[in-house]
Amino acid sequence: LNSPTRYFLPSPHAPKPSKPTDPARSPAMESAGNDRRDAALGSLAVLPDELLCAIVDLLQPTDIGRLACVSSVMYILCNEEPLWMSKYLSVGGHLEYKCSWKKTTLSRLSLCSGNSELEQKARHFDGMVHLLYVCSICLVYLPIHTYFHAGFNSLFLYRRWYRCFTTLSSYSFDNGHVERKDDLSLDHFHSQYDGKGPVLLGKLAETWPARTKWTIQQLVHDYGEVTFRISQRSPKKIIMKLKDYVSYMELQHDEDPLYIFDDKFGETTPALLEDYRVPHLFQEDLFGVLDYEQRPAFRWLIIGPERSGASWHVDPGLTSAWNTLLCGRKRWALYPPGRVPGGVTVHVSDEDGDVDIETPTSLQWWLDIYPHLAEHEKPLECTQLPGETIFVPSGWWHCVLNLETTVAVTQNFVNQSNFEHVCLDMAPGHCHKGVCRAGLLAVPGKSVRDIENHPAGTMSAWNHNDMTRAEKRLKGSGSVRASNSANQCASFEFSDVHESLENQVFSYDIGFLSQFLEKEKDHYTSVWSPTNPIGQREAREWLRRLWVLKPELRGLIWKGACLAISVDKWYACLEEVSACHSLPPPSEDEKLPVGTGSNPVFIVSDNVIKIYAEGGLGYSAHGLGTELEFYDLLRKVGSPLINHIPEIIASGFLVYEDGVYRTVPWDGKGMPDVLAKYYPLELSYANSCFPLGLWSKQQFGMDSSTECSNKPIWPYMVTRKCKGDIFARVRDTLSKADLLNLASSLGVQMRNIHLLPLPHGEPLPKPEDNNVRDSDPPEWKQVISTLNGRKNNIKKHLANWGGTVPTVLIEKAEEYLPADMSSLIKFVKDDDGDSVYTFPCWIHSDIMDDNILTQRSLTDAKSTGDRDLEKLDAVNIIDFSDLSIGDPLCDLIPLHLDVFRGDIDLLREYLRSYQLPFLRGKSNNDIYKSVGNSKFSTASYRAMCYCMLHEDNVLAAIFGLWKDLRAATSWEEVEHLVWDGLNRYQQSSPTLSS
C-alpha cells in the first residue's frame, strides 16, 4: 500500500509486485467489524454495504440526517462524501464547492448549520448516542478518521476511500502500444490510420498560442469569472465559474472528480477559438455544411484534476475524434470496434436503438479491473504528453485517465472515411447499433465461445431463465474478479437470427455492418434513437445540403442516404409517379428529398411530389383523404385561401407487389379498391363522398393498429411548386418589418382556415371509449376523449419529455388541469343552467416554420421612390396532411412558439389581422354571457392546457425560449408569461360582442 500506483497501474517494463496485505481484511479486525456491524444494523446487516449505500442515496437529505441517528454504522453510511456528491448532482445548477460535498449540498438546499465546531474534532462512538443525535439534527460531518473509532470495517467503503485519496503522480512514463508519428502527411494519414487505428501525433500544435496560454494559472487570470459546463453522471446541468472550479480541484478528494467538459466554450469565450486551429489532417468535416445551431456538439474544452477522466465509451454517432493535450499527462486505453472492454455492459433498447454504456469510472477500471486482465485481453495503451494529439478512429472504444491536472481541446468530425458509418448509426432500429459497439456478441445465438478474444465464462447471465426478452444484455470480455455491483442489471436481446453469420468474424466494414439493418423498418419515419448526435429533421437537411454543395461526393452521399433514410426506395417511388403522370424525369440534382418533414418530398422541375409515409397506411391514407377534402371545400366555397396553397395535379397510391412499384390514381372520392380489402370501414363512411376525410379520420385515422398499417402501400400527391422559400431557411435574413408583414399575412390566412364550414356528417364515438359522455357534442367527442386520456396520465405524459418539465410543475399538473376537458369547450348559463358549447373548426395543427413559404419582391416604385427596396410579398402555407378539428387556439401554439419564437410584437400583429373571437358558437352572445369569470373561458388558461396535453414536446420550446421559467413553481406563472397577451386581445377585440 506504500506504492499503490506501482501495483495498480503497472508499467509494462516493470515487474509486477506481489499483492500487499489489505489491513481491512485481517481476521481480528474483520471479526470486530462484523460484530459492530451486526449490532449497529440489526436486521439490515444482511444487506451488503454497497446496497445499503444505494438505499440511503434514495432518501431526502433531512431523512438521511434522521437515519444517521440510528447507530454508529448508519452514521458512517449517511456521511459518506460520494453520497452527498450524488445528492448535489441530483439538484444541479451553479456550483460553489464548500470544502465538502455535504456542506455544499446542505448550503444549496438552505439546510446548512452555522455550528461547525463539531467538525473539527474526532469522535469516539462508544456512549455517543446523544452526540450522534445532535450531529445528525445539525447535519454536520465528522471526518474519515472518526469511522475507525467505531470499530467498524468495510472493504467496500475502504476501497472507495482509497480511490479518493490515491495519487497517480508516480506513474512511470512508458511508450505504450500506440504509434507516435511526427510530420505525418495527409495521404499517409488516410492510407495508414484514418479508419484503421489510433496514432499519437507530435508537432501539430507547436505554433498554437494555446501551447503557452492554456495553463491553469493563465486561464484563471483571463477567464476566472466565465462559467463553464461540468461533466458528471447526472441528468442535471452543472455549471461553475472557472475560478471556483480550480478551487474545487485543489480541495476535492472525489473518487470520480468533476471535470470541465464544455461544448459551448466557443460561444462563452470566443477568444479561446483563436488560440488553436484544427490540424490539417482533420479539416474535412462534412457536418460543416450545417448551420452552427443545427450541427451536433463537436468541440469541447476539457480541464480535469488527477484521477478524473472519461470512462469507456464509443464516440457519439460513430464519429472520429482528435484530442490535443496542452498541459498535464493523460493515460489512454483503447479497444478496436466490436470489442467490449472487460467490466463494461452495453444496453441497447429494442424500441429505438438507444445505446447505453454501463461502465465503472476510469479510475475504478484501472485500479480494479485492469490488473486482472490477461495479457491478450489488455487494451492498446499510451501516455499522452503536453503538445501531443491523439487520433481516435470511428467506433474505437477508449477510456482516459488524467494522471495530473490537464487542459485539452478535442473535436469530433465526419469525413469520407467514416461518413457511411455515421449514416448507419443514424438509421432506426437496434440490431446494427449493438453490433457496431458489441460486435458479434450482439448476434442472437452467438455465445462468447464463438468469438475470438472473448473467453468462456462471461456469459453465464446471458441465458438466465429469469431474464425476459427485454432484459438481456451484452457484457464485456475477460474474467474479471473485481466486484462491480452496478453491472448486475440487464437490458435486452436481439431478434432475427442471422444464420448466414454463423461462422462470420466481426468486421467494421460497412458492408458487413449494414447486414444488421432491420430491412422492414421505414427509416424515413420510424423513431430514431434519442442518443443520435443529430435529429431526423437535421439529418435530412444535412444530406440534402451535402448533395447540393458536394457534387463530387454524390456517390458516397447516396450510399449514406440509403443507409440513413432508405433514399433508394423513395427514389424508385418518385420515378414511378413521374412516369405515371407524364412528369419530367428527375435530374441528378433532384434525386434526394427536400425539406425536413416526416414524409419524403421531391421537387422535379416545377412539381412537388409528396409520398405519405408517416404513421403507417391507415394514418397516411386519412392524411391524403382529409387534405383532398379540404382542397375540394376551398374551391366550393371560393375561399381566398386557395391563392396561398399549392395547386393539386394528381394523387393516388403507390403499391409495391412482386418487386415492382405501380400507381393507383385516386381523387379522395369513394373507397379505392387497393384499400378496400385491407381497410374496411363502416358502411356510412365507405359510401360517403370523402370516405377517408375529416370525420373518418377523427374516428379511425389515428389508429396505428389497423391490420393494413405495415402494407407496402403509400399515398402520394403531386402539386405545383409555390414560389418562395421555406421560412425556416430565410428567417435570419428578414427584417422586423418583414416579420410583422409575415405575422399579418398569417393572421388573415389562419382566419380563412378557421372560418371554413365543417363537412356534413357527425361521427359517433367508439363503443369502448369511456372518456366521453352522451351529452358531449358529437363533433367534440374524439377531441375530448383524447385530451382526457392524456390528462388521466399527465405525470407520465410530462415525464416522458426527459427532464424538459421541472419536477415541481409535474407534481402540480393534475390540480392545474380541469377534471374534465369538456370544461374547455362547454359553459353553463347563469340563468337556467343550460350548457352552451363552442364550435370546433378546421385547424392546420402543424403550422411551423418549415410549412410556410415566403417570397420577396420589389415594392411599388411610385409609392416608395426606391426601386431597389424589397419587401415580403407572398406568404403561402403548405402541408395540410395533419388537418384536424378542434379549438382554433391550438393553431396558435406552433405559431407563437416556433414561427414567432415567443415575440409578443409578432403575436400582437397576428391577432390584429386575425379578428376572430376565440370562443365561437351558435350564439356568441350566449357564450360570453354564460362564461362569466370562469378560468375555463380564459384564452391563456386554455392555451396552457393544450400545451401541457400536446402530443409533441411543445413545453421544451417554452422552457427554451423563456429560460427563467425553469425556476417557476406554478403553472400559473408559465401561463402568465407565455400566453397573457391572448387575454388582452380577448378584452379588446371588437368582434367579441358580435
UniProtKB/TrEMBL annotation:
A GO MF label: metal ion binding
Disordered as annotated region, ranges: 1-34, 759-778
Main location group: nucleus
UniProt keyword annotation of Iron present: yes
Compartments, record wording: Nucleus
Ranges for domain F-box: 41-87
SUPFAM superfamilies: Clavaminate synthase-like, F-box domain, Protein kinase-like (PK-like)
Keyword Plastid found: no
Location of the JmjC domain: 267-430
Transmembrane segments: 131-150
Annotated GO CC locations: cytoplasm; nucleus
Basic and acidic residues compositional bias, start-end: 763-778
Keyword annotations of the record: Iron, Membrane, Metal-binding, Nucleus, Oxidoreductase, Transmembrane, Transmembrane helix
Pfam family, one: APH
Family of the protein in this entry: Belongs to the JARID1 histone demethylase family.
Protein name as catalogued: JmjC domain-containing protein
